[in-house]
Amino acid sequence: MHPKANTIAAMSTVxxxxxxxxxQSPDGVLLVTGDFIAASLNDHLPNYQQYVxxxxxxxxxxxxxxGNVPGAYKTKRLPKLGNSDDCMVSLSPNCGSYVLDVFLVAxxxxxxxxxxxxxxxxxxxxxxxxxxxxxxxxxxxxxSxxxxxxxxxxxxxxxxxxxxxFLVxxxxxxxxxxxxxxxxxxxxxxxxxxxxxxxxxxxxxxxIVVELLVVAA
Length: 217
Description:
Blueprint lengths: L6 H18 L6 E5 L13 E2 L12 E5 L5 E8 L6 E7 L1 H122 L1
Antiparallel strand pairs: 1-3, 2-3, 4-5
Protein name: Calcineurin-like phosphoesterase domain-containing protein
Keywords: Membrane, Transmembrane, Transmembrane helix
């Protein structure tokens, strides 16, 4: 960038182009490099990291490199090329940081999977417990109904047996009463017959006595 250039307009133009590229490739890696002199994209692209962290001309860092992947590159100063005023800079992929990021992402994924599995297991256990409780309730209800039916049947049978025994006893009593009454009637009839016979005999004796008296007179 020329020292007398309008840095605000230049940074706005660069920022607009970067945003266009981001809209076209949201997941892409974007790098912005150049001799910025007095300009900076720090305020325009706050989510971008400036990777060059060393002086390349005296104590100044004019050649900058911005990227949208934090910690993606590590820089190394190289000798000047020909009559250039600035030293060259080498940007190498920071594999350690990338591996660490991948590892952290993998750990987060594993933790998330473990949490999901635990939640699923808890839900399955809850469903199993609910099913078991439901089965137990059904069994208890069925057993209760069966026991109630058995008790009712037993009570009915016992009541019927008691009624039959009562009727049998009543019938026996009635029979005994009838037998006693019949015996009493027989005895009474016999007594009456005896009395009648006695009276008849008395009458016969009286008649005989009367006839004898008549004959004797």
